[in-house]
UniProtKB/TrEMBL annotation:
Domain of life: Bacteria
Record protein name field: Putative 6-phosphogluconolactonase
Chain segments annotated as coiled-coil in the UniProt record: none
A Pfam family the protein falls into: Lactonase
Biased composition (Low complexity): 39-56
UniProt region (Disordered), positions on chain: 35-56
Organism: Leptospirillum ferrooxidans (strain C2-3)
């Protein structure tokens, strides 16, 4: 699932993929009224809107008027293309449209994977800019298309591919902006000779973005793959904290090979950090209110490839680590099976943790950063979009 709030924290949107590896279908967006977050009933669902095939990402423009969705397509072959949809946001979260972004070239962007708005320069009009990451991490060990990055406008126009000279057979797993306008893009590459995955980080600069660096390797004791969302600490220079998802096969079972390890990266170098390995791999990260703490949600089991074994998994964990170093981490809560994100409302009062088991847990944020349950978990519809691509 992808779960996000609008700039005013009055609305929230949950993106359900309704997909499995063998049957990719149209997705579903659920709109919520978040003004009831502090009540015992949690947040209130207000409307449902269908999307295209296998949606993997969505973003709301900073003006709060448009919601943009990346429909990845089947993701099983290079010819199974997706598209990008632009919805208008009406009262109480009702969505209108969509408009298909027809100017996005399907030959270089067959599988849109991530939508990101820059931190400034948007005011809720059709001239607003957003970025589309085109990548297929699920094909990394076979024949993935070369990643691409396009700058587009709500009006429908798209610019030249910013990663036109990027190495082949790599996959971008995410993208986020620092407050100074620098864009961080972690990704992974696969070595067929060693059957291992290795992570990298590239940065892009300019307003709008105009140039990107060569990949900087992220080193670890074992093979690595960036996982889920990552967090940016807006220091000088900014620091990216990147999750690590690393598995291997032991007998007939998949096991975690490098639990408890995540990465701290500046523009040109990365180092390893850790928290208790018994909590599993850090699959989603976020900075909390005031950027005082880094929050990590983790899974103790390898992620499933379908929904059949979700209920048999142990609960996930939430840790918070003091910034700017994130060197000391303390557990502050548990989640339902397989957490797939953590989002804070702009007021800093609440944290929302969606899970692949179909719930959204709501926590109150204490003055020291600790989380306490605020309401009964909200149950969503459909099969939720995993977002972490299992290599």
């Amino acid at each position: 699932m992808v779960f996000l709030l609008d700039p005013n924290a009055s609305l929230a949107f949950a993106l359900n993929s309704n997909s499995s590896p063998s049957s990719f279908q149209n997705g579903l967006i659920e709109s919520y009224n978040t003004s009831t977050a502090q009540s015992t009933t949690g947040i209130t669902s207000t409307s449902y809107t269908r999307t295209g095939t296998n949606p993997t990402s969505m973003a709301v423009d900073p003006g709060g008027n448009y919601l943009v969705v990346a429909n990845h397509g089947s993701g099983t072959t290079n010819s199974s293309t997706g598209d990008v949809e632009i919805f208008g946001i009406g009262s109480n979260g009702a969505l209108s449209g969509p408009t298909i972004l027809s100017s996005l070239p399907q030959n270089s962007c067959p599988n849109p994977d991530k939508i990101v708005f820059p931190p400034s320069g948007s005011n809720g009009t059709t001239s607003d800019t957003f970025y589309v990451v085109c990548s297929s991490p699920e094909l990394i060990s076979s024949s993935p298309p070369t990643p691409a990055l396009y700058r587009c406008q709500i009006s429908g126009s798209c610019s030249t591919n910013l990663l036109s000279s990027f190495p082949n057979s790599n996959a971008i797993s995410n993208m986020e902006f620092a407050s100074n306008g620098t864009a961080f893009l972690p990704g992974e590459t696969y070595s067929s000779s060693s059957s291992s995955y290795n992570a990298f980080l590239i940065t892009c600069n300019g307003t709008p973005l105009s140039s990107c660096t060569s990949p900087t390797p992220i080193s670890s004791a074992t093979d690595t793959a960036p996982a889920g969302d990552f967090a940016i600490y807006n220091g000088s220079p900014p620091t990216a904290f990147i999750g690590n998802y690393s598995t291997s096969v032991s007998g007939t079972s998949t096991v975690l090979t490098n639990p408890g390890v995540f990465f701290s990266c500046a523009a040109s170098s990365c180092s390893n950090l850790s928290y208790p390995s018994s909590s599993g791999d850090p699959t989603y990260l976020a900075t909390g209110p005031g950027q005082a703490n880094l929050y990590i949600v983790s899974t103790p089991d390898p992620l499933p490839t379908d929904t059949s074994n979700i209920s048999n998994s142990p609960s996930g964990s939430i840790y918070y680590c003091s910034l700017p170093t994130a060197s000391a981490c303390t557990q502050t809560g548990t989640t339902s099976n397989y957490p797939v994100g953590i989002t804070f409302d702009p007021s800093g009062k609440f944290a929302f943790v969606p899970t692949w088991s179909g719930t959204i847990s709501i926590f109150q944020v204490g003055s020291n950063g600790a989380l306490t349950p605020a309401a009964s978990p909200v149950v969503t519809t459909g099969n939720l979009n995993l977002q972490v691509v299992v290599p």
